[in-house]
């Protein structure tokens, strides 16, 4: 492959987006799963498609609360990703861009650098935040100076202002609500109201993704839910069903509402629109207008129907009248940072951001901390 291509791994807490920059990325679950019916066999990454019984599937995750802590699990998933079964790579010929969380712990950064240089024998490495790649992607397409990146993923939601391509750290806000909190809350609500689904993380996650939406008028939707009832007609008791039916009523919009009102589940934080305004208010005066005009949303939670419109309506209501507000939902909210990595590789400055194996052997981890501004 030579240096004409680059291997990009957007290593999310729920899915890894991976591939060479001259191909389409693969989306691989970043976990090992085990099924109650097939206890002996772990399903790694996309092997989950081979599982015959999705009920009772449980996840073994490398990430907890947004940080990589289970190295054995992560290493198993990486070995699968880099193998012939998924997306094979020779790191001695191909530079690697890998993402890591904002404010990542020094010990995790060190371990990551070490694994890729020493175990995978990577020749050229760039560790970077997914939000940096999202900002780069947006700037390349829009030629703007300021971007407000909203990353609403599995573990949390981050709001990150960028001024001339640099993170403005005083403006970063984190909300401890992401896809995992929503799925867990849906499990609790359904278990309380209907049927014990506490062991059904995989199935309920699918239910959430297929059925939930963000309300644009919560009280009106509550009234509608009261009058009209359920997602599908309730089956009469005498009709035989092979499967159990879950009835979804106001859960469909009350679950994603937690992104806008974390206090509803006892998390004493602001919702996304208030956090956006709070973040912008802590930035330099001259950047505020540009940030409001360039809000970009990505991450799995932004796929809920109504998400962009709700963020826009709420931010518009909170912002000063004489400022324009523009909210863009990434074309593909899952692969948006990965696509940013693809654009970054074409940047003439690309190699100046990277660290080589040679530099690592000469100067060690200290240079990695200097080079990668996480």
UniProtKB/TrEMBL annotation:
Listed PANTHER family = ACTIN
Q: Which residues form a coiled coil?
A: none
Task: Give the protein family.
Answer: Belongs to the actin family. ARP6 subfamily.
**What is the protein named?**
Actin-related protein 6
Record keywords: Cytoplasm included?
A: yes
Q: Which SMART domains match?
A: ACTIN (SM00268)
Q: Which InterPro entries match?
A: Actin (IPR004000), ATPase_NBD (IPR043129)
GO CC annotations? cytoskeleton; nucleus
Assigned keywords, A-Z: Cytoplasm, Cytoskeleton, Nucleus
Compartments in which it is found: Cytoplasm, Cytoskeleton; Nucleus
The signal peptide here is none
Q: What is its main location?
A: cytoplasm
Q: Does the keyword 4Fe-4S apply?
A: no
Q: List the Pfam families hit by this protein, alphabetically.
A: Actin
